[in-house]
């Protein structure tokens, strides 16, 4: 992650605090680990050790998810114009197949 990219994400990342007050050793490294998981689609347990303990990175990811951080980042990216409007992402967890595709009777 470049310094310019980190400068954009840093203001969002630092707003979400751990309930116990502990901070990760490097917010930037944790974010890079989350991006690695998103890019590769690998299970959390396969996160390379260079990003820290997988369970710690996962806990940070969950905390930020519950704080709606990822949505705030996406909204800021859309408003900034840094991302082309032609670029879109479809998350497979929200795409539903028709019942015929699920092996329903007669399908």
Automatic annotation (TrEMBL):
Domain Insertion element IS402-like, chain residue ranges per copy: 1-74
Taxonomically, which superkingdom?
Bacteria
Q: Specify one Pfam family.
A: DUF4096
Q: Which PANTHER family match?
A: BLL5188 PROTEIN (PTHR46637:SF1), TIS1421-TRANSPOSASE PROTEIN A (PTHR46637)
Protein name per the record:
Transposase
Species of provenance: Paracoccus homiensis
